[in-house]
């Protein structure tokens, strides 16, 4: 479970950061925005509570499952997951940039 959470946290926390950032950005227009429900969902207090619960579970499992002794392994899992998540977002940005005008 600790390994799984280490792999999921970049997505879980990253979506919250992006959702919150977009939701509170004055430049974000939600009206007629095809991503409005996504932005609202991941910037929502309910989702943020879930993120905080996941962080709490990660901290608990860290203590229970000897996270300190496994820091290198867990960091590698987290780093790989973060890289994959960043690449996922970059694919979308590349597709928009490559789309003919």
UniProtKB/TrEMBL annotation:
Species classification: Bacteria, Pseudomonadati, Pseudomonadota, Gammaproteobacteria, Enterobacterales
Official protein name in the record: Thiaminase II
Family matches, as InterPro entries: Haem_Oase-like_multi-hlx, Thiaminase-2/PQQC
Record-annotated Thiaminase-2/PQQC domain positions: 2-94
Highest rank taxon of the organism: Bacteria
């Amino acid at each position: 479970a600790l390994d799984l959470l280490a792999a999921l946290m970049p997505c879980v926390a990253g979506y919250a950061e992006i959702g919150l950032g977009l939701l509170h950005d004055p430049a974000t227009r939600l009206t007629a925005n095809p991503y409005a429900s996504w932005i609202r969902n991941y910037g929502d207090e309910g989702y943020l509570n879930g993120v905080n619960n996941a962080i709490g579970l990660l901290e608990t499992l860290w203590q229970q499952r000897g996270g300190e002794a496994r820091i290198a392994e867990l960091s590698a899992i987290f780093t790989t997951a973060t890289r994959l998540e960043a690449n996922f977002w970059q694919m979308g940005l590349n597709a928009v940039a490559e789309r003919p005008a």
